[in-house]
Amino acid sequence: MAEDTVPVFDTLAVIGPGLIGSSVLRRAQAEGNLARKIIAVDKSPDVCARVAELGIADEVTTDAAAAAAQADCVMLCVPVGAMGAVAAQVVPAMKPGAVLTDVGSTKVSVIEAISPSLRADVPYVPTHPMAGTEFSGPDAGLADLFENRWCLITPLDCTTAEALEKVRTLWERCGARLREMTPAHHDRVCAIVSHLPHLLAFTICGTADDLASETRSEVLDFAASGFRDFTRIAASDPIMWRDIFLSNREALLEMLGRFMEDAQAMARAIRWEDSDYIVDRIERGRAIRKSLIENKQA
Ligand SMILES: NC(=O)C1=CN([C@@H]2O[C@H](COP(=O)(O)OP(=O)(O)OC[C@H]3O[C@@H](n4cnc5c(N)ncnc54)[C@H](O)[C@@H]3O)[C@@H](O)[C@H]2O)C=CC1
Ligand SMILES: O=C(O)C(=O)Cc1ccc(O)cc1
Q1: Is this model's pTM higher than 0.90 or not?
Q2: Do you know which Gene3D superfamilies this protein is assigned to (predicted)?
Q3: Whose CA is nearest to atom 2 of ligand 2?
């Protein structure tokens, strides 16, 4: 058997087969070399029934501990606020040497929440695939969601080299590009590139919605592409984003503070007709967009 056809894990349990978890399931099914057997676990019987209907896992159950007991890798794909409780349920049931990993959008507080459940014989590899959409649930997943997207990995002292290598291979086989960093650095980077933009999108839609009703209907009728682009992000899942904001509170508040200072500076430039400042800021935005396109991340 060629090396890249050998499955990375014998049995992979995906806990929370929503957008991200079901994308991993679909990829595992499409490639055949992520795991020999795939188990999907969700607390919601409706989600389990849908995953079974979609036929994207070999086994589907609401019993997280029973699935974890069979698995060589348990991947937590639940909202970040649920990670600690789910780890407490699954880790005691895991086989010695089986790998624990998560895909949460924040890392410091997820690691803090999972740490009390960790065992010396269960290596833990925290990850964050930087790919997604505004949709959630098992129907939203895509086998190529991670193709050419970054997956950030924040190894810890309890991350063995062997577990890290396996999780890296799993994400490479999902098509992702990998980057390792510390959990604290991860949270600052994601606060600016992901969490603050979502906060701004939710806020601007709220501001528009607070306007008098006739103006609000005009917003809906005439929304130019600027507003429309914010509404896509603002359609994201409220529980997931509540959890992200609360769990990355410090880094997010710091980036929001910086943003508000810069927005004030822009307001001042507009008030005093400082054209050079305005043009400079817009040119910087255009340059960032151009680099994203060159990096194939647009
Ligand atoms: N949506 C996105 O674009 C991205 C999300 N993430 C992270 O991935 C994780 C999952 O996000 P999505 O797939 O978007 O969420 P989702 O809402 O589509 O799926 C989450 C699933 O977890 C299940 N769940 C919740 N609590 C549970 C529990 N205690 N036990 C078992 N199942 C439970 C829910 O029933 C749901 O089916 C989150 O931590 C999120 O921060 C990471 C990258 C991108
Ligand atoms: O849909 C979008 O624009 C996203 O930003 C998706 C996304 C959401 C959460 C993450 O942690 C990573 C990516």
Answers
A1: yes
A2: 6-phosphogluconate dehydrogenase C-terminal like domain, NAD(P)-binding Rossmann-like Domain
A3: 133
Report CA-CA distances (Å) from 128 to 123, 229, 238.
17, 24, 19
- What is the phi/psi pair of residue 243, to 5°? -60, -45
Ligand 1, residues 47, 62, 78, 194: which to mutate, most atoms within 8 A of Cβ?
A: 78
Is 129 touching ligand 2 by the criterion CB < 6 Å? no
pLDDT digit string (tens) for 119-176? 999 999 999 999 999 999 999 999 999 999 999 999 999 999 999 999 999 999 999 9
Indicate whether 30 and 159 sit together in one domain. yes
pLDDT digits (tens, 9 = 90+) for 209-246: 888 777 777 777 777 778 888 999 999 999 999 999 99
Closest listed ligand to the CA of 199: 2
Number of domains, the chain: 2
Do 176 and 123 have their domain in common?
Answer: yes
Among 95, 101, 86, 79, which Cα is nearest to 158's? Answer: 101
Residue 274 sits in a domain whose CATH number is 1.10.3660.10
**55 phi-psi bin (left φ>0, alpha ψ -120 to 50, beta other):** left
Q: Identify whether residues 152 and 208 lie together within a single domain.
A: no
3-class secondary structure per residue, 93-134? HCCCCCEEEECCCCCHHHHHHHHHHCCCCCCEEEEEECCCCC
- Asked if residue 132 has its Cβ within 6 Å of ligand 2, the reply is yes
Question: Measured from the CB, is residue 233 less than 6 Å from ligand 2?
Answer: yes
- 166 Cβ neighbours under 8 A, 6+ residues apart: 8, 9, 73, 99
Q: Using most ligand atoms within 8 A of CB, pick from 15, 105, 107, 142 the residue to mutate for ligand 1.
A: 105
The string of DSSP letters for 70-82 reads H-SEEEE-S-GGG
Q: Which domain holds residue 113?
A: 3-181
Residue that terminates a domain, selected from 181, 201, 223: 181
